[in-house]
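TL;DR need structure tokens for one chain.
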Amino acid sequence: MTTDEKYMQLALDLAASAKGNTNPNPLVGAVIVKDGVIVGTGLHRKAGEPHAEVHAFRMAGEHAKGATLYVTLEPCSHYGKTPPCANLVKEAAVSRVVVAMEDPNPAVAGRGIQLLRDAGIDVAVGILEAQARRLNERFIHNMLTKRPFIISKYAMTLDGKIAAHTGHSKWVTGEAAREDVHRIRHEVDGILVGVGTVLADNPSLTTRLKEDYGKNPVRIIMDSSLRTPTHANVLNVEEAKTIIVCSENASQEKITAFEEKGVTILPVRHDSQGLVVDDMLEKLYQNGITDILVEGGSTINSSFLQQGAINKYVIYIAPKILGGRLSLTPFAGQNPSTMDEAWDVEFASFEQVGQDLRIIAYPKIGEEK
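>> reply
TL;DR here they are.
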């Protein structure tokens, strides 16, 4: 690892420590180094608060002059909720700036880097870029598509079963894997299930961690005809906000009854395949949802898969075999005739979590069906 990579990795680690707190903003870390000594560090802690560079320069003070700034994302050059960081960097009189990646936001898109170069500052771009892009995969997706980043999470046995034929699924995985899922819940804006899961399990869909911290994501229920029971746990809006996504022709009487309980109703288009996922995602993004953990059953999973809406897979595999022709698998849908109809993915990581194996994978680029 080169010197630049070493300090950039530190900046990336700082940025990652704020996961779940910066949405809709990106995760950003900054490190200022002078004569081989770290004189300032910072990270963007929360949306609306000072950016990473601001914290780093406050710490560095006069030592920033002639130093090198390492930052995981191009310094912004536009006025948002805070002033542009590129101006701050220029005024601090650093001699060099090392940037992991350009900002995908069209309002920035290289302008911050150019501003610094025009000021005579040496700027290097692309140090640990792949890691930086992975760290901000949600933000990049938001900027390019104006849709939430979708994580499909499911737990299955070694033979690919998520539940017995009766629907019983508690518990496929062990306690450590379930704790890991709650950490992901803390990091996302929304958690989504279908009404079938609500009817079968009556889940709360909240974040429960041993450390007694963590935010509750917005609960999103796909329920085209509003079959969610009035006593369902997800209707307790004191714990977390709940959005029920229904068909545009759902009963107005039912809509009113849910709204009186404080539930947000989001009507979307409906076709022969069910609720139109892209229409739902567009409207959820307009409602401030930047990423969603999909924890639905095989029908919901299949809807997202068939409409090409899954951006990431988090899969837990338990060391057990269930068997059974009627046992449920992660994805339903029509029966493929050949293996050529399979959706290809690329594995990103493998890790043992307690007794279980966690696999992180991504759709293969350019995959279309």
